[in-house]
Structure formats: C-alpha cells, structure tokens
Design a protein that fits this description.
about 150 residues; mainly alpha; 6 helices; globular; BTB domain-containing protein; SKP1/BTB/POZ_sf; nucleus; BTB/POZ_dom
C-alpha cells in the first residue's frame, strides 16, 4: 500500500477577501435576510454574519426561525446600531468620544464579540425576551395586513 502525498493549499488573502465580500453584499443589499429597525430607519444585514458576531442575534434567529425577520429596537440609537453593524462586517469602526458610552452600552446589550463583556448573560436574556415579543407582534401585524 502506497501512501499518497498530501498537499496543503492556502488562500493567502482569504480573510481580507471574505471581509470585503460580506461588506459588498451588505452595501449592495444582496442576499440580505434580516432587517434591523431603529428610530424609524432600517438596516439590512445577513443573519449568518450577525450570528457569528453576537450571541444575542444567534439566539434570536435560532428561537425565531423566520425567513426574513424584522427586529425592532427600542431605546437604541440608530447611529449606535449602524456603527455596530459596521464593526461586525469590517472588524473595526470609528466612534466619537461623546458617542462611545452609548455605543458600548448597546454592544453590551447585543453581546457583540470583541466589544461586550460576556458575563452579562442575565441582561442579554431579558433583552432577548423583549425582542421576541416585538418580533411576534410584527409577524402577526404583517399576517393580519395580508388578509
């Protein structure tokens, strides 16, 4: 029996390419499958990327297997949410000093990896419950309007 030689193939700029590809998909709104709604404005994104960067989003999407959920945020600033989405897509974001406390608080609520203290599980679970109630109400409203 002869042993075959194994070859290791590596895509040198894989991380850079994937980061750019997801950002381009978001910018062009291609294949988006979740809408975040905050202060009367919306942000379209990809569930898989949000889930990879946030245990909050991962739990929401697993517990609400909706094809294209709309998540409504109360008491969250649109600028903070937009900056957090940018952080998740690009791995970095610029935030003014004045906006930093609010930004970090929102990152904590949403359990954003790389920004939030993961020991804040109780707060996160309470916020998930409130969000689930809003998602359920939104889905019922959409179904009622379709009738």
């Amino acid at each position: 029996m002869t042993s075959q030689q194994q070859y290791s193939l590596r895509w040198n700029d894989y991380t850079t390419y994937i980061t750019g590809a997801f950002d381009a998909l978001r910018y062009e709104e291609d294949l988006v499958d979740v809408t975040l709604f905050c202060e009367g404005r919306k942000i379209r994104a990809h569930k898989v990327l949000l889930s990879a960067c946030s245990s909050y989003f991962k739990d929401i999407f697993k517990e609400n297997p909706c094809q294209h959920p709309v998540i409504i945020f109360k008491n969250v600033k649109y600028a903070d949410l937009l900056s957090l989405v940018e952080f998740m897509y690009q791995g970095e974001v610029s935030v003014s000093q004045d906006a930093l406390p609010s930004f970090l608080h929102t990152a904590e609520l949403l359990s954003i990896r790389g920004l939030a203290d993961t020991n804040n599980e109780i707060k996160r679970k309470l916020y998930i419950r409130k969000t689930k109630l809003l998602i359920g109400k939104t889905e019922r409203n959409i179904q009622n309007k379709a009738k």
